[in-house]
């Protein structure tokens, strides 16, 4: 009677009877569940291993990026198993190769885009700005678009377009900055206001310069909720053109 009154025991009894009458299906189901569990655990381990490998590779590559450059006279006295570069060119050629290989070896890792970012920086230092632009665009293409990093590297790409001195790319860079500055919530909003003002400063278009730098001071001055150090860079120059 007690058994019959307990719903849980009734359910367990029915499950037991079902298992006995469907032994094959039951054991197949159990094996399937176990297999899925192992696949889930295995995939998690695989992903974790990929991330660890990528981080180790990135740290190793960073050593070359941070490695100092010694002059010939200094090199004769300092020989720490070649823990320095003899020239800028030697350094950036090595850095570009290391990060390019790092990306190829770690394409599936979460930090894959950062290998491309540093490869782009090396190409920029080698004076290969068009190649640097292409690589940074590739990095942004696989980067999390909601991240702070994406915002800043997107600005950097626009500035590289401007620095290319090619008319079409230059115009594209200016338009990109103008689009970014429309987003008031962009983490790079203050920087873009400064950079646009700076661009028009060099172009001697002081009306546009005042436009962007006044916006910068109004929104990010000392009394603002989020003061910006870009304001301090703009103020002295703004004073120079205030009477023009």
Protein described:
- The chain starts with a helix and ends with a helix.
- The radius of gyration is 29 Å and the shape is extended.
- The protein has 244 residues and is an all-alpha fold.
- The longest helix is centred in the N-terminal third of the chain and has 44 residues.
- It has 12 helices and no strands.
- About 3% of the residues have low confidence.
What's the short version?
The protein has 244 residues and is mainly alpha-helical. The chain has helices spanning 2-5, 7-21, 23-66, 72-77, 88-105, 112-125, 129-142, 148-163, 167-181, 189-202, 206-220, 230-241.
Report how far the terminal alpha carbons are from each other. Answer: 101 Å
Number of helices: 12
Specify Rg, calculated over alpha carbons: 29 Å
- The average pLDDT score comes to 85
- Low confidence ranges: 73-80
Q: What's the order of the H and E elements? A: HHHHHHHHHHHH
Please state the structural category. mainly alpha
Q: Outline, from the CA principal axes?
A: extended
Please state roughly what percent of the residues sit in beta strands, choosing from under 5%, 5-15%, 15-25%, 25-35%, 35-45% or over 45%. under 5%
Number of strands: 0
Helical fraction equals over 70%
Task: State the major sheet.
Answer: none
Key features?
single chain; 244 residues; mainly alpha; extended
List the helices and strands and how they pair.
Blueprint: H1 2-5, H2 7-21, H3 23-66, H4 72-77, H5 88-105, H6 112-125, H7 129-142, H8 148-163, H9 167-181, H10 189-202, H11 206-220, H12 230-241
Helix pairs in contact: 3-5, 5-6, 6-7, 7-8, 8-9, 9-10, 10-11, 10-12, 11-12
């Amino acid at each position: 009677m007690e058994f019959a009154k307990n719903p849980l025991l009734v359910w367990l009894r029915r499950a037991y009877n079902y298992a006995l009458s469907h032994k094959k299906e039951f054991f197949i189901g159990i094996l399937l569940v176990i297999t899925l569990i192992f696949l889930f655990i295995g995939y998690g381990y695989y992903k974790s291993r990929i991330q660890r490998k990528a981080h180790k590779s990135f740290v190793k590559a960073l050593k070359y990026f941070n490695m100092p450059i010694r002059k010939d006279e200094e090199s004769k006295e300092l020989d720490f198993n070649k823990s320095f570069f003899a020239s800028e060119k030697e350094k950036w050629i090595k850095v570009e190769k290391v990060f390019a290989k790092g990306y190829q070896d770690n394409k599936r890792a979460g930090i894959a885009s950062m290998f491309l970012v540093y490869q782009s920086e090396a190409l920029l230092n080698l004076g290969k700005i068009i190649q640097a632009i292409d690589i940074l665009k590739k990095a942004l293409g696989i980067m999390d678009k909601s991240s702070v990093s994406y915002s800043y590297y997107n600005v950097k790409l626009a500035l590289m377009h401007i620095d290319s001195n090619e008319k079409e790319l230059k115009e594209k860079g200016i338009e990109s900055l103008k689009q970014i500055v429309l987003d008031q919530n962009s983490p790079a909003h203050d920087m873009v206001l400064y950079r646009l003002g700076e661009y028009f400063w060099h172009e001697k278009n002081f009306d546009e310069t005042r436009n962007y730098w006044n916006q910068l001071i109004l929104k990010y001055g000392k009394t603002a909720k989020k003061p910006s150090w870009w304001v301090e860079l703009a103020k002295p120059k703004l004073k120079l053109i205030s009477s023009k």
